[in-house]
Q: What sequence folds into this?
C-alpha cells in the first residue's frame, strides 16, 4: 500500500479527477495549498504599496493505492496535469503501513 | 398662466430620489459582483464604478443637452452644445411643462439613469473584459446610444402655450414609458446581447462550474437595487404627489409578485426555490414595473410582477439553447423584463389613472401598438449600434483579455488585486 | 372646516420613510443571516425575503382593509373586503383625521410595518425551518395576528365632526404606541417564543458551538436597521413636522444609549465589549424607543435606551435558564425591549410634548396602567394564536426539517445552494 | 418681517439628509474595516460604532450648545449649558437667520457631523488601539476640539434686525466652508496625524504585508459614504432649494472626477487601476468638494475632483517618506483633500452663485487669503490639542495594546471575537 | 514513531478530539479537506444551471504516535468516527524517521 | 529522498521561508492547519455564551529533500521557527519512495 501525493495546478484539477476515475481510482482526498518554487508569483499594489505575492495556489491530491497500481496512477496524473509550463507540480509516493475503513473496520486492500 | 414657484416638497423628493438612484449602481455592482467567481469579482464591480465616473463627467459637458435640450427642435436628439448647468441654480425644470423643482435637481435625477443603463450591460461580459476598453465603450455608448434614446423617450420638449418644440420621437408619438422600460432596460438588454456576441463565450463555459461566489453579496445588491428603485420609479413623478405614491406601491407589489413567480418556477422545475432566484426575481419585477408603474392599478402590478418573474426565470435558459454567453443574464432579465413591462401598459393601462385605457380596459389595441413600436425601435437601434461600437473596440484596442488572464482571474490581470484575504496568513495563497 | 390639500413636503417625507422601512427587512436578513452558521445563512435571509413577497401581495388584496378599514366599525378589525387601493390615487390618508398625504403613501408606509413584523419572528427558529412552511405561516400569521393587532393599535378610525367610527380597541382606550412597540415588537417577540417552543431546540444546542459566521454582515444589518428606523419612527408622524424631528432625535439618542448599555454590561459580566453586543444593543435601543419616541424628551430617550441596552443584554441569557431555543433572541430583544419601551411611556411621557404626563412628570399611574393593558393584551393574543398556527402547520405539512438536513445545513436541503464559494477551486468542497 | 412658518418640504429634506449622514458612519466602518487585516476588522468597525454612541449622548447633554449656542456671545464657543433640546419641539432653527425647519431637525443633522468627524480619525490608528481608551479619547476630543471648532465655522449666531450675537470666529471672518472642509476633514486629518504619532508604528510596518482583507467591504463602505454624502453636502443647504440641487450635482461630479483622477494616477505610476484606488478616489473627491459644493459651478467641481483624486493618490505615499504610520491615510485623504477643497473656493468661487468671486473669476486673492486662515487655524489647533489629549491618555490608561495582542489580532484581545467563521467546521481554527 | 492520518466526517470531529484526548493523545494537527469516494455528492442549481458537487467536506487529523500507541489510537478513531453510513472515511499509518520539537529541539519520543 | 513536514506558528512563516530559500531549498508546499496541543486556546463570548476555542492556527510546510539535506533543513527550521514559548510546533521526516516532476516527467533528485 502506498500514499500518492500530487501537487498540481488548480485549473487542471477537474481533468485529473476525471482521468483518475476513468482509470479506476475510487477515492481521493483533496485540499487547497500554496506552493513556492521556480514559478514566479505576481505583484499586487494597494495605495501605491507593492505586495509581492510569491505563494501560488495549488491543489493537493492524496490517493491511497495498492502497490501494483502506483505507477499507473502516477503516470495518469503526470500525463493529464502537465501543461509544459513551470509550476505544473510534483507527484510523490510514500509507504503506508496500514489502512482502515472507518465505516466497517475493514483493513488493507479492502479498505480503499 | 400663474407663475410657477419652487416647491420644497417636490424638490425634497426628487433630491432624495436622485440619491436613491445613485445608490442603485453600487447596488448593481454588488448584485453582479457576488454572482461571478471570486477571482473576477473586483473587475465586475469596477465596471459599474468607472461607469459612474465617466458618465457623470460627460453629462455635465454635453450629455444633459443631447438628452434634454430642445433647442435643435429634433425628435432624435436634443441640442449639441455644452450643458451650461453651472448657471442653472434658480431655473426650474422644463420638460413638456414647467416643474416646480430646480433644473439642477432634474439634471441630477436624470444623470443617475444615464449611469445605471450602461452599467447594466456589464453583466453580459463578466470575467473577460479589458477595463480600459470598457471605459471607452461606456463613453461612446452613452454618447451615441443612451443620450439620444433618452431624448426619444423622456424629452417632452419646451411647451409655450400649446406649442411644443424639441420633444423626442417616441414621446410625441404617445409611447408610454414612465421610468425607463425602453430607454433603460430594453436598451441595456439589447446592448448586452450585442456585446456578449462581440466578446464571445468564456473559456470553459457550460463545462467548468461558474457558481456565484457570494450569495449574501448578491442579496445585498438586490436589496440596494430594490430600495433605490423607489427613487427610480416614484421619483419619476418629479414630485411628491399621488402619482408618486401609486408608482411606489406598484413598485413594491410587482417586485413581491416577481419574487414569488421566479422561485415558484424554480420549485416546480428544479426542485428548490433559491436565493439567487429570489434576488433575480426581485430585479425582474422591478424591471417590468418600471415603464408601467404609474399607469396601472396595484392588482395589475402584482400580475405584471408575477408574469415577469415566471417569464424571466424561463428566459434565462435561452442562452444555453441559442449559444451566447450573456454571463449574468442581461438579456433574460432586462430585455425580457423590459419588454414584458412595456407591453403590459397596452393591456393593463387604465384611464382612471392617467387618461389611457389598455386592452383589458376596453381601450383597444392602439396603445399596445404604440408600445410595440417603442420596444422595437429602441431594441433594434441599441443592438445594431452596440454591435458596431463593440466590434470597433475589439478590432482596435481589443475588448477581451488574454485567455491566460481569464484563467488566472481578470482581477489580478487588470487590477493587480484580490477581492479577499481572509486567511491573513498565507498572503496571496490564492 | 378648511379643505385639506396635499402637502408635498409631508408626502416626500412619508415616501422616503416608506423606502427606509422597506430597507429594514433586508437589513434584518443580514443582521440575522450573519448571526447563524454559514451553512444556514441563506435560509435565514430567505425567510425575510419571502415575507416581503407574501405580505405585499396580501396587503393589496385584503390586508390594508383589515388593519385600517373602518367600515365594519369594530374595535377588533377593520373591514373584511378587498383593498381597492388602485382607485386611491387622489385620496388623502384618513386615520382619526385627514392627513395631507396620499392614501397610497399611507398604505405603502404601513405595508412596510406589516412586512417586518413577521420577518422579525424568523430569528427564533433559525437553522431548522422548512421554507415553504414558513411562507404559509407568514400568510396565516399576518392575516389573523398582525392585521387585526395593527387595527387595535394604529387605527384611529374615521372622524367626522366629533364622531369617530371604527377606531381600534387599544387606540380608543388611549394606549400610546407611536411607532409599534406593541403592534410590532411585543407582537413579534411573543410569536417568536411560541414558534421556538413549537419547533423545539436545534440539534446540539448548548453543546455544539454556534458562532455567528460573519460579524461584518451582522453589523451591516444593524446599520441598515438603524438607518431605516428613522423612517419607522420619525415617519410615523406622517409628516415632516416638529414631532417627526423629535422622534428622529430620540431614536438616535436612545440607540446610542443602548449600545453603551449593552457593551458595558458585557464588559462587566464577560470581560469584553463585543461587536455582536454593540449591534444587538443598537437594535434593543431602537426597539425600546419605538413606542415612546414622540412622547418623551431626549434625555429620557437616552435613559430608556440605556435601560433597554442593559435589560436586553441580561434578558438574552434567559433562554438558557428556561430551556427554549429562541435562536437569535427575538424574545430577549424584541419582546423585552418592546415591553421596556411601552411601559417607559407611563414613566417618562410628558405633556410638554403630547399632552400626556407619565409618572415622573406627576401624571400618576393612569397612563402606566393603560400601557400595561396594551402590553398584556398584545402579548397574550400573539403568543396563543401563534402557538395554534405553529402546531397546525407542524401537524400537517411539518414545520421542521429532517435532522439530517439540519446537520448538513438547511441551505443545501431547502435551497440547493451554498452562501459562499470563496476558494474558487474546490467547488463545493464544503 | 414676515413670520417664518415651518416648511414641510425643507424639513423633509433635512430629516432625510440627517438619516443619510448617520449612515455615513457605518459606511466609514466598512470602508475602514475592509482595509485592515481580518484579525482586526471588528475593532476597526467598533471604533466607529462607539463614536456614534458617545457623541450622541454628549450632544444632547452639552455638545449642541457648545457648538451652536450663542448665549455666551463668544467667537470661540457657544454656551456652556445643558442643551435642553427636549422642549424644542416647536422651535425653528436659528443660525444667522431663522430657518423654516424644526430646531430639533437642525440639531439632529449637525449631530451626525459631530459623530463622523472623530470616527474619521480612527483610520490613523488601525490595528493597535485599546477600545476603552478610544472611547475616552472621543469624549474628550469632541468636547475640546470638535464642538468649539464647529462653533468657529458653522455658527452664524443669532440675528435680530442687523445685530448678530455669538457667531463663530471663522464664520464672522467670512471664511467659507459649506459642509465641513475645515471643521470636519482638516480637523480629523490633523488629529489623525497627531494620533498616529502618539501611538507609533504598527509592528512589522513596511515589512509584513498588510493587505486589505475584503475589497468588497471597502467598496460597500465607499458606496454608503457616497450615498450619505448627498445628505452631508446638499443637506447643508438646510432646505430643498436650488442651492441644495447645486451642491448635489457638484458632489456627484467632483466624486466622478476624483475616481478618474486617482485610478489614472495609479495606471500611470503602478501599472494598474485598482478597486482600492477607485474607492479611495471617490472619498477624496467627496472630501474636496465638501467645503466648495455650493460656491462653484459643476465644471469647476469636476476639476476640483480631478485635482483631489490625483493629489490624494500622490499624498498617501508621504507617510512612507516621513515615517509615520497613518494606517488608512487619514492625512493623505482627509487632510490633503480638505485643504484642496477649502482653498479651491478661493480660486473657483463665483458670484453668480453666492455673491463671492474667487481668483479665477476676477475676485482677487482676498477670498483665498481668508480660506488659508481657516485652514491654518483649524489644522494647527486640532493637531496640537489632539497631541496633548493623545499623550495624556497614553500616559495614564494607555492607548496602545500589548504587542502580543497586536500580533494575534486586536479583535481577539479587545473584543474576544473573530470577524468570520466561514469554514464552520474548525471553529476558531484561525 | 508513526504518523496516523485520519479522514473523517466534519460532524464527528469534536467527539473524536475528545475521545483522543481522553485516550492520552496530547496533540494533533487538523485541516479541512474535500473527499471524493463512494459517497455521492449533491446538486446545486443556479438560475437553472445544475452544478453537481461531488467533493464532500471532510476533516483530516494527523497524529504523531509512538509505535506502541498506534493501534489504540486507530481503534479509538474508528470507533468514535463511525456512523455506519458511506463516507465515514479512512485512517492510515505511515512510518516516520525522526521528529523534533521546535521549541526545545527535543527529539523522538520526547518531542511529541 | 525524504518528505520533511513542519508545523509552525503563522507569525514565523515569512522568516522560515526566507531562511529555507537562503539555505538552498528551491520549493515547498504550504497550507493552513489548526493545531491541538499543550498550548492553550482562548475563549470567545457571543451574547453571553462562551465558546472555548482550542484549535490554534498553524502553518504546515512540506519539503521534499534529498537524504543528505534533511538534517540541515530540519535544523534551519527549528532554529528560525523557535520562539521558546509553547506551541512552536514540530518537524518530522518521512521516507519517500519516488518523486516525479509533472512538467517534465523527470524523476528522483532531478525532480525537486
Ligand atoms: N522541494 C519541494 N517540496 C515540496 N513541494 C515542492 C517542492 N518543490 C516544488 N514543490 C511544489 O511544486 C510546485 C511547482 O514547483 P515549481 O518549482 O514552481 O515548478 P516545476 O514543478 O514545474 O518545476 C510548487 O508550487 C510547490 O507546491
Ligand atoms: N483511495 C483513497 N485515497 C485517499 N482518500 C480516500 C480514498 N478513498 C476514500 N478516501 C477518502 O475517504 C472518504 C470516504 O470515502 P468513501 O468511499 O466515500 O466512503 P467509505 O470510506 O465509507 O467507503 C472520501 O471522501 C475521501 O476523503
Ligand atoms: N502528536 C502530535 N501529532 C501531530 N501534531 C502535533 C502533535 N502534537 C502537537 N502537534 C502540533 O504541534 C503544535 C504545537 O504543539 P504544542 O504541544 O502546543 O506545543 P510544543 O510543540 O511547543 O510542545 C500543535 O498545535 C499541533 O499542530
A:
Amino acid at each position: 500500500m502506498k500514499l500518492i501525493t500530487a501537487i498540481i495546478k488548480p485549473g487542471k484539477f477537474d481533468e485529473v479527477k476525471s482521468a483518475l476515475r476513468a482509470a479506476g481510482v475510487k477515492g481521493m482526498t483533496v485540499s487547497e495549498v500554496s506552493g513556492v518554487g521556480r514559478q514566479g508569483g505576481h505583484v499586487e499594489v494597494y495605495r501605491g504599496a507593492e505586495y509581492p505575492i510569491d505563494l501560488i495556489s495549488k491543489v493537493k491530491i492524496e490517493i491511497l493505492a495498492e502497490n501494483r497500481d502506483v505507477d499507473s496512477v502516477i503516470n495518469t496524473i503526470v500525463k493529464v496535469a502537465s501543461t509544459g509550463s513551470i509550476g505544473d507540480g510534483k507527484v510523490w509516493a510514500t509507504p503506508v503501513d496500514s489502512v482502515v475503513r472507518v465505516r466497517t473496520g475493514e483493513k488493507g486492500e479492502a479498505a480503499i | 398662466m400663474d407663475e410657477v414657484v419652487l416647491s420644497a416638497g417636490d424638490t425634497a423628493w426628487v433630491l432624495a430620489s436622485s440619491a436613491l438612484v445613485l445608490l442603485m449602481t453600487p447596488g448593481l455592482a454588488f448584485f453582479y459582483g457576488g454572482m461571478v467567481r471570486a477571482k473576477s469579482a473586483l473587475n465586475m464591480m469596477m465596471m459599474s464604478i468607472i461607469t459612474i465616473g465617466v458618465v457623470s463627467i460627460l453629462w455635465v459637458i454635453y450629455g444633459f443637452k443631447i438628452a434634454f435640450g430642445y433647442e435643435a427642435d429634433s425628435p432624435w436628439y436634443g441640442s449639441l452644445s455644452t450643458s451650461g448647468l453651472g448657471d442653472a441654480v434658480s431655473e426650474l425644470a422644463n420638460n413638456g411643462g414647467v416643474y416646480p423643482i430646480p433644473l439642477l435637481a432634474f439634471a441630477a435625477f436624470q444623470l443617475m439613469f444615464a449611469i445605471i443603463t450602461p452599467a447594466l450591460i456589464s453583466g453580459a461580459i463578466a470575467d473577460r473584459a479589458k477595463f480600459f476598453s470598457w471605459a471607452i465603450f461606456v463613453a461612446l455608448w452613452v454618447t451615441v446610444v443612451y443620450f439620444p434614446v433618452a431624448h426619444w423617450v423622456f424629452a417632452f420638449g419646451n411647451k409655450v402655450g400649446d406649442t411644443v418644440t424639441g420633444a423626442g420621437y417616441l414621446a410625441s408619438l404617445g409611447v408610454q414609458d414612465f421610468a425607463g422600460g425602453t430607454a433603460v432596460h430594453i436598451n441595456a438588454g439589447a446592448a448586452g446581447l450585442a456585446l456578449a456576441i462581440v466578446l464571445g463565450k468564456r473559456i470553459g463555459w457550460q463545462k467548468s462550474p461558474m457558481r456565484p461566489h457570494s450569495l449574501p453579496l448578491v442579496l445585498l445588491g438586490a436589496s440596494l437595487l430594490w430600495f433605490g428603485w423607489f427613487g427610480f420609479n416614484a421619483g419619476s413623478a418629479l414630485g411628491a404627489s399621488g402619482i408618486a405614491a401609486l408608482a411606489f406601491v406598484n413598485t413594491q407589489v410587482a417586485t413581491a409578485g416577481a419574487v414569488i413567480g421566479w422561485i415558484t418556477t424554480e420549485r416546480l422545475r428544479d426542485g428548490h426555490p433559491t436565493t439567487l432566484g429570489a434576488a433575480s426575481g426581485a430585479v425582474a419585477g422591478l424591471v417590468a414595473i418600471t415603464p408601467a408603474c404609474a399607469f396601472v392599478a396595484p392588482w395589475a402590478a402584482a400580475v405584471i410582477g408575477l408574469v415577469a418573474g415566471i417569464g424571466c426565470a424561463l428566459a434565462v435558459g435561452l442562452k444555453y439553447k441559442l449559444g451566447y454567453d450573456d454571463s449574468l443574464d442581461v438579456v433574460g432579465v432586462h430585455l425580457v423584463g423590459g419588454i414584458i413591462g412595456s407591453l403590459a401598459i397596452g393591456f393593463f393601462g387604465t384611464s382612471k389613472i392617467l387618461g389611457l385605457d389598455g386592452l383589458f380596459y376596453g381601450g383597444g389595441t392602439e396603445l399596445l401598438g404604440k408600445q410595440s413600436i417603442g420596444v422595437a425601435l429602441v431594441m433594434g437601434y441599441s443592438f445594431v449600434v452596440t454591435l458596431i461600437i463593440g466590434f470597433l473596440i475589439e478590432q482596435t484596442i481589443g475588448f477581451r483579455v488574454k485567455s491566460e488572464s481569464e484563467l488566472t482571474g481578470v482581477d489580478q490581470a487588470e487590477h493587480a488585486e484580490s477581492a479577499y484575504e481572509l486567511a491573513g496568513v498565507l498572503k496571496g495563497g490564492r
Remarks:
- Chain D touches chain B through 67 residues (CB under 8 Å).
